[in-house]
Amino acid sequence: MASTRLTALDLLMPPAYTRLLLTFGRKGEDEVSSIDTILREGLSRLVETVPVLKGEVFTTGQRAGEVAVQPRTDIKNPPLFQVRDYTLKDGKPMKSYLELYARDMPMTELDGEDLAPLPTFLSNPAPVFAAQANFIAGGLILCACFHHSVFDGPGAGVILKVWSECCNFLQNPADGPKLLSPVATDRNVLLESGKPSTSLDILAGYEITTPSKDSTTEEQSAPTVAVTEMTTATFTIQNETLQRLKVDVNTYLSQRGKNEWVSTNDILCAGLWRAITKARLESPDAHFGTTSRVGMAVNGRSRMQPPLSDEYVGNVNIYTATEIDMPPLFSDATESLAEIAVAIRRSVLSVNDEYIRHLIHKVNQLPDLSLITPSFKVWGNDLAITTWREMGICDLDWGSGICGGKVDFVRIPSARFHGLCVVLPRTSHKPDAVEVLMGLKTESMERLKGDASFKNFASFQSERGSLKAGEGSTFHPALSILLPLWAWPDASWQNVYTAISSSPSTTWHIVINPNSGPGTTGSAPSAQVYTDGVAKLNTYANALTYGYVKTGKAGRAQADVHAEVDTYASWATHVPENISIAGIFFDEVSSMWDAQADASKIQYYTDVANYARQKPGLAGHVAFNPGTLGPEQLFDVADFMVEFENAVGEWHGADTIATFPQARLGKSAVWVYNSAPETDVAGAVAVMQGKGLGAPTGCYKTFDAGNLKTLTDAVGGGQGQGQGGAAASPGTAGTAGNVTQCAAVME
After folding, report:
1. Listed residue (118, 132, 40) closest to 86, CA to CA
2. pLDDT digits 0-9 by tens, 10-66
3. Beta carbons within 8 Å of 501's beta carbon, 6+ residues apart
């Protein structure tokens, strides 16, 4: 490839990598070589269309800060594509895909040092692109790293789209190859397209200084903030919440004769800006002032005249900044939200063809690219928001040979950063919700999580905690709760809703049982109260629903078991309520001793588990309940297994846990029932946590509100708080992981 000159808009980008993790669930363990081959050959076809991918970014020396792309010269950098197989016995232990899937693929468990071929920052010469396929038990995590000086977010999305199409073509040649048009990679369209504006005095998203101006004043210099004081967390915001607020604001504007409107994204950014500002400015070292700014990246492709192709892969992300006075940011009133959102809308609309061409002209005239910087900061009162929401990555079809072809989640390798919000790509698992990753000082993050108004806006999902000097990076996640909701929907279900909503950092595995199974074969529950109840459970981002199926100690005909699995799966097509089920809870499972006497029982449960996991309409989760020690082989095909179901008098804490397979504690759960009010729930939970089990005890009266609160508080998820608080990491107990360290409840 020849050297490639980068445009003014490319040169404005930070010299960092956009690192994306695409996760796929695998049905078997024998696909590694074939998946590797398809990905490599697909990438080779992609590079033929986009040869810049095999280049490296280098410093030209023509002016300070200017870079371009040339063929790779640094053999020390990683190859274009590499594989790491964590399923090998001598490889680094990694949590299984099912464990990560059940917790919505938390970024706390996705370490960039293991999963990414490149760090976030790398000195020149730096590869334009590198990818790494990571195979873990039951899954594939594909990491793609894009140099931001060459691709913006939409451009990276286009590259992934074409790569997936190339992989699909290799498996289905009859479909014909789908390649990019030449305009997608032609940077000449922007190289000399600058034009000075006669009406624009400033570019709101940028500050331009001159060499003689002192740019080291206290106002422009970032405060010294140690990385160890940062916390990066993920929050979920329901579309229903955003739509309701948008209607409220637009109605407010209309009623007051305002000829303005706001979008859903304006509401999202306004809500984040308001909540973060309130949380930050109570911090002792916050930069107090009279105004605050939020910076945003606006996709300029459609805003130019003529518009650029949506497939153009270079940078056309244009910064804009919105500045407002502080008072609206401290008010929860609709009027204040409207003021903030309208200000954001005006800033977004200011990015037009004139703005972009004037920006290009200014950059091309600069003798030193360090003289132009964003006008917003990410400390003090300011923050930045970037959105990848509509990248469409989970809509891509990589072909059935790549783990079925569909991406489950898009994530970012674990990182800590301050004052930046990233709206993550839409996933098929949460089509009606928005996931936002944000980084703040730890004390500000804790204040944000505890803010009552913010809890009505967003729910906490997971976080990467801060480190203190000398500590390792072991993360103690919130434990899960396994709840047998075997009751008709009434006030008891309301108590469960309250408990789930009050503990957003805790994952709830809810087992429902309409009638010793799903009820009428092939049909949804006939009682509206039941469908309403299940639909309500499905509105909570931290809850997974399981359908109850009995197996009769492997004596029930598999055809009958399959029929009930099929019935639960059919609920996914029910309308108008969303009563889809995430997985199957198999009850009356054979014990370890039963299986020793009859080895065919292992195959029976392996077959029904695989049937449920692969069934369309379900989300692949499987749980077993032998109620005592179960066949250890079944841990390989289950998310978790209930190893103890008995009265509190039979529960002997650490002595009971000692009878469990110690290498499987992370997938073990317990149900302890008939406990008394004076039962030391917190003490029992502490023992289970300390052993790496994480299955708290606690209900002396089924689904009683106070009883459930005692349980959630013991787990550490009450009031939206808690990160597990375990004395030892589950990994230290030799477990497979802690996705399904399922907390038991007392019936």
Report:
1. 132
2. 999 988 999 999 999 876 555 788 999 999 999 999 999 999 999 999 999 889 889
3. 459, 540
Question: What rounded mean pLDDT belongs to the chain?
Answer: 82
Q: Look up residue 442 and give its two tokens.
A: 């730890």
Q: What is the pLDDT of residue 382?
A: 86
Domain hosting 689: range is 480-744
Q: Distance of CA 269 to CAs 265, 322, 343, 362, 431, Å?
A: 6, 11, 11, 28, 19
* Closest of 442, 669, 27 to residue 35, by C-alpha: 27
Residue 19's DSSP bridge partners are 145
Inter-CA distances, 127 with 75, 80, 170, 690, 730, Å? 10, 8, 26, 44, 37
Residue 216 lies in a domain: no
Quote the CA–CA distance of 142 and 147 in Å, as a whole number. Answer: 17
Q: Are residues 496 and 625 located together in one domain of the fold?
A: yes
pTM: 0.64
H-type alpha helices, 209-333: 239-255, 264-280
Give the span between the Cα atoms of 88 and 199, in whole angstroms: 63
Beta strand segments in 15-80, E: 17-25, 55-59, 67-71
Q: How many domains does the chain have?
A: 3
Report residue 686's pLDDT band, with 50, 70 and 90 as the boundaries. Answer: low
Count CA within 13 A, CB hemisphere, residue 157: 22
Tell me the DSSP string of 364-391: HH-SBGGGEEESS-SSTT-EEEEE-TT-
Strand partners, 544: 509
Question: Which pLDDT band, with edges at 50, 70 and 90, does 177 fall under?
Answer: low
Q: Are residues 405 and 269 in the same domain?
A: yes
pLDDT single digits (tens) 75-91:
777 899 999 998 876 56
Q: How many CB atoms lie within 10 A of CB 3?
A: 12
Shared domain check, 484 and 460: no
Residues 436, 308 share a domain: yes
- Do 322 and 383 sit in the same domain of this protein? yes
**Which tokens belong to 500?**
């789930």
User: Which residue, of 132, 160, 176, is where some domain finishes?
Assistant: 176
| Residues 214, 200, 379: CA angle, nearest 5 degrees | 45
How many degrees, rounded to 5, is the angle at CA 72 between CA 66 and CA 74?
95
Amino acid at 363: V
DSSP 510: E
pLDDT bin (cut points 50, 70, 90) of residue 431 is: confident
* CA–CA distance, 732 with 691 (Å, rounded to integer): 9
In a domain, 571, yes or no: yes
Mean pLDDT check: name the lowest of 339-348, 373-382, 432-441. Answer: 373-382
Label the pairing between strands 742-744 and 480-485.
Answer: parallel
List of residues 6+ apart from 167 with CB closer than 8 A: 38, 39, 41, 42, 398, 399, 401, 402
Q: How far apart are CA 714 and CA 486, in angstroms?
A: 22
**Residue 221 is assigned to a structural domain of this protein:** no
* 675-684 residue pLDDT tens: 555 556 666 6
How many beta carbons lie within 10 A of that of residue 143, not counting itself? 25
The total number of residues shown for the chain amounts to 747
pLDDT of residue 733: 21
Q: Are 288 and 311 in contact (CB under 8 A)?
A: no
Q: Find the Cα–Cα–Cα–Cα dihedral 704, 709, 710, 716, rounded to 10°.
A: 150
